[in-house]
């Protein structure tokens, strides 16, 4: 992937987020998008080597439109400022968790897991954690997971790493307030992420590094997907 060129284009669109500039530079956009999508195609193949549930996923299934829907947003900028791909077995709009690759100047990252879960599914996930605590702890309290992503609710979205984008300030209704591992009940999502340097995707070894990150997060995601899939 020509990440340096892609990030330069994204930096330019951030400074010139208007249709006139974009139309004048559309060939560069098309070049950068193809470079990104070519590597996402390879990323899908590499992930499928250890997770065959996504073997059917295409680049189109995983990538997003660059054009923003501004109808309900105070930000009327017509274009996004990043390239992203969400590689999930049930598609990028599903609740089923998947693998996310994000390119944005000074904000590149890899993420894995589930987010934006409705209350009834969160309740089921919390109950499952309590009923199968040992299995859950094996997924999220092993050395590799904590070293990569940290402990639940310690990081905020935008930090260098984290596990859980949002969490409740107190115990969710209907659950014991004195539960020993209440930090897991307070989570509102099960997303783990790390930020990477802008140069990360320039290296031919980035696929290997991506695989190592996603393999660590996969058991946690599998635990949750087994519950969430009952609701989809």
If you had to describe this structure to a student in words, what would you say it looks like?
This protein has 232 residues and is α+β, with helices and mostly antiparallel strands. The protein contains nine helices and five strands. It has helices spanning 3-15, 19-24, 26-48, 59-62, 119-131, 133-140, 143-149, 182-185, 206-228, and strands at 83-88, 98-103, 108-114, 161-163, 190-196. A hairpin with a 4-residue loop joins strand 2 and strand 3 (108-114). Helix 1 (3-15) packs across helix 3 and helix 3 crosses helix 9 (206-228).
Name its key features:
single chain; 232 residues; alpha+beta; 9 helices; 5 strands
The string of secondary-structure elements, in order, is HHHHEEEHHHEHEH
Strand order of the largest sheet: 1-2-3-5-4
Spatial separation of the terminal alpha carbons? 35 Å
Structural class: alpha+beta
Count of strand segments: 5
Mean pLDDT: 95
Shape, principal axes of CA atoms: globular
């Amino acid at each position: 992937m020509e990440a340096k060129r892609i990030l330069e284009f994204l930096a330019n669109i951030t400074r010139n987020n208007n249709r006139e500039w974009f139309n004048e530079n559309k060939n560069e956009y098309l070049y950068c998008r193809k470079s990104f999508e070519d590597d996402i195609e390879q990323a899908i193949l590499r992930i499928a080597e250890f997770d065959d549930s996504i073997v059917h996923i295409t680049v189109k299934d995983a990538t997003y439109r660059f054009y923003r829907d501004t109808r309900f947003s105070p930000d009327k900028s017509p274009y996004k400022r990043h390239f992203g791909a969400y590689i999930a077995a049930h598609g990028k709009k599903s609740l089923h968790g998947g693998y996310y690759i994000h390119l944005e100047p000074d904000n590149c990252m890899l993420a894995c897991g589930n987010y934006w879960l409705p209350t009834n599914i969160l309740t089921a996930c919390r109950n499952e954690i309590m009923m199968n605590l040992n299995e859950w702890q094996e997924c999220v309290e092993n050395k590799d997971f904590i070293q990569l992503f940290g402990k639940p609710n310690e990081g905020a979205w935008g930090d260098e790493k984290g596990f859980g984008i949002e969490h409740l300030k107190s115990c969710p209704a209907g659950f014991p307030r004195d539960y020993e591992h209440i930090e897991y009940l307070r989570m509102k999502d099960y997303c783990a992420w790390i930020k990477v340097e802008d140069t990360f995707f320039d290296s031919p070894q980035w696929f290997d590094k991506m695989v190592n990150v996603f393999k660590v997060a996969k058991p946690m995601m599998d635990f949750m997907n087994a519950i969430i899939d009952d609701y989809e």
